[in-house]
Amino acid sequence: MGKRLIHENEIHLIKQPDIHAVVRKMIEELGLAAGSMKGFDIYKVVETYFMNLEKRHEINELLKITEDPVYCGEEEQIRETEAAEK
């Protein structure tokens, strides 16, 4: 059996060292001098996108990437808010 695939609701489970290792490979493949330079930090961008759900939502909104409301937890938030108001 092969390596277990990580799905959209599990992205946050990827460890920071693994993210940085893959970003390092991308930097090398693109021939960049570095992954973090003045005003540019691809390590931080990818790490934040993978590990910070709130920031991922903000980035997706900025890039006009449609999200599944179930995945975003919006439906759960609505139910919890409605239950709290009763």
How do you describe this structure in short?
The chain is mainly alpha-helical.
Account of the protein in words:
The chain is mostly helical. It has one domain. It has 5 helices and 2 strands. The chain has a two-stranded antiparallel ribbon with strand order 1-2. Helix 1 packs across helix 2 and helix 2 crosses helix 3. The longest helix is centred in the N-terminal third of the chain and has 15 residues. The protein is extended and about 55 Å long. The N and C termini lie far apart (49 Å). The mean pLDDT is 83.
Strand content: under 5%
Number of domains: 1
Got a strand count? 2
Cα-atom Rg, whole angstroms?
A: 17 Å
Order of helices and strands: HEEHHHH
- Unreliable segments (pLDDT under 50, ≥5 consecutive)? none
Number of helices: 5
In whole angstroms, the N-to-C terminal distance is 49 Å
User: What global shape is seen?
Assistant: extended
Helix content: 55-70%
**SS-based structural class?**
mainly alpha
**How are the strands ordered across the major sheet?**
1-2
Key traits:
86 residues; mainly alpha; single chain; two-stranded antiparallel sheet
Tell me the layout of helices and strands.
Elements: H1 16-30, E1 36-37, E2 40-41, H2 42-51, H3 53-62, H4 69-72, H5 74-85
Antiparallel strand pairs: 1-2
Helix pairs in contact: 1-2, 2-3
